[in-house]
Amino acid sequence: MKITSVRPWLIKSDASYWGEFLFVEVTTDEGVSGWGEITTTTRLANRALCTILRQIGAAVTGEDPARIEYLWHKIFRSFTYMGSRGAAVECVSAIDIALWDIRGKVLGKPIYELLGGPVRDEIALYTHPNQAKFTSNEAVIREIRDIVESGHTALKFDPFPHQGRTADGQAREQRDGYLDGSMTRKDEREAAELTALIRETAGPDVDILIDAHGRFDVPTAIRLCRSLEEAGQIDWFEEPCPPESLNALRQVREKVSAAISWGERGHTKWDFVPVLENRLADYIMPDVTWTGGITELKKISALCEAYYIPVSPHDAAGPINVVAGAQVMMTVPNFYKLETSEWNLGKYDHLIDRPLDVSNGSLKLTPKPGLGVEMNRDYLQNHEIELD
């Protein structure tokens, strides 16, 4: 069997927060194909990745898709002198996932059977409320109650006003990106009030997870975390500072009581080693579509196991992200929960051949070979974004 193509599919979809998904299909000369994904958080990045993927496709055409580890390194090392993180390893991730999908289909086994077999029967999830619905306290309460009643025992949200305002009342030009790292006292109070309301509504038995999206400088992150610890008894504080500085992360960790979560912007096992060695996080949350694929997520999980640190894969994309992360977590002892971007995953039904089996806050994987899902090719063809 030989690889015949690597094809990016950039798809317009209302199911994506970003308005589009980026899937990757690897085809072979024996008619078996596999699916991967690397949806990123900007349209600019998605289009750049499509260009890189086409070049990688030419480089791996004719290779044996069963040589997954070899192909991981062949692609990864091709970018060594321009920087092998970011776009390079995200392309590796998508192709790696697709190769594992092919391998499972060829052998007639789900991927988790090829990674050592399952250590659990289903995958516990944590999820997000739809904060666009947070138009009043009553609306917040309805959304949180719906999540709790669905059986989820953990939920994550970003309580901080994304635009925010400066001290003189002017709108700030930022959303999730780092601008100056600060936040007004008024916005801080609003964040604490929202967190307190969600904790009160969810009750004491639901984990409340806070995502700061790496937006804050050290003193602001410390102050915000302490405020939310008091207001909502939070269970983790995620990415308090921009991920480029582990020294900043260390300073925050030394001054707060809440558990620290880190890792969605960590690329490859090498990014996670200093975090583990220096005890900078209580939870590690790699994204299978960004950090190096199934191959690398399994290795990162083993590193974390040596430190007794739970792994909780990140998700901000589509159904391939969810099922690929779940395939690995079926085999990982030190697993916390798998993230899903919304609690009702029916939004993916039009993209795949069958709905994901989610009930009582858990995902049950099908025993079908490979990833266990196929993309809806008719939908992809009808909603593909054409690039020059």
Q: In summary, what is this structure?
A:
This is Galactonate dehydratase. Its EC number is 4.2.1.6. This protein has 12 helices and 12 strands.
Task: Give your account of this protein's structure.
With 388 residues, the protein is α/β, with parallel strands linked by helices. The protein is 39% helix and 14% strand. The relative contact order is 0.15. The model is unreliable at 172-176 (pLDDT under 50). It has 2 domains: 3-108 and 376-383, Enolase-like, N-terminal domain (Enolase-like, domain 1), CATH 3.30.390.10; 114-364, Alpha-Beta Barrel (TIM Barrel). Strand 1 and strand 2 (20-28) form a beta hairpin. The strands form 3 sheets. The protein has a 5-stranded parallel beta sheet, covered by helices on one side. It has a 4-stranded mixed beta sheet with strand order 10-4-12-11, with helices on one face. A 3-stranded antiparallel beta sheet has the order 1-2-3, with helices on both faces. The protein is built from 12 helices and 12 strands.
Helices and strands: which structural class?
alpha/beta
Main sheet summary: 5 strands, parallel
The value of Rg in angstroms is 21 Å
Instruction: Give me the side-by-side strand order of the main sheet.
Output: 5-6-7-8-9
Distance between the termini: 31 Å
State the share of residues found in helices, binned by percent.
Answer: 25-40%
- Which shape, going by the Cα principal axes? globular
CATH architecture of the largest domain: Alpha-Beta Barrel
What number of structural domains do the residues give? 2
- The overall strand count is 12
